[in-house]
């Protein structure tokens, strides 16, 4: 499903044809699954802590594990969430090696929920998928969008086809909505 979400805005913006969009979704999913199968990794959602505390959890976990099990914030899911009328700190997805995720879970105590996903998406664990995507995108006609398509990597609209190809390939290893300034994003849509 994540592959559909990454490619469908580009179809809507007429950046890719429907057929090419389907091919990219299929390839992206297969490439990410192959990367997931290559290493034991996971994701955990941290709820109710601010981004600084979540980063501190990651830093503390990374001091206790080998390089292959490092963790990082992968998704800024809801930095300033509201539940009913109560403000809570946030919801962040942390991705990384299985041992690192287990350390984060132990340190986060009641602030965590293990995500039912196959791997540590949006981290270097997905690096093997990038080259497959780059090769496919090199063979795919990418056009300038007819409407602004905001990247979920940098919250910016991109019109250059070569830049769009690079972003589409790198999305699998980039954190999602990393500290997006919502007002700037709205301004970008209007630009």
Automatic annotation (TrEMBL):
<dbReference type="InterPro" id="IPR052760">
    <property type="entry name" value="Mitochondrial_malonyltrans"/>
</dbReference>
<dbReference type="InterPro" id="IPR001227">
    <property type="entry name" value="Ac_transferase_dom_sf"/>
</dbReference>
<protein>
    <recommendedName>
        <fullName>Malonyl-CoA:ACP transacylase (MAT) domain-containing protein</fullName>
    </recommendedName>
</protein>
<dbReference type="GO" id="GO:0016740">
    <property type="term" value="F:transferase activity"/>
</dbReference>
<dbReference type="InterPro" id="IPR016036">
    <property type="entry name" value="Malonyl_transacylase_ACP-bd"/>
</dbReference>
<dbReference type="InterPro" id="IPR016035">
    <property type="entry name" value="Acyl_Trfase/lysoPLipase"/>
</dbReference>
<dbReference type="InterPro" id="IPR014043">
    <property type="entry name" value="Acyl_transferase_dom"/>
</dbReference>
<feature type="domain" description="Malonyl-CoA:ACP transacylase (MAT)">
    <location>
        <begin position="7"/>
        <end position="180"/>
    </location>
</feature>
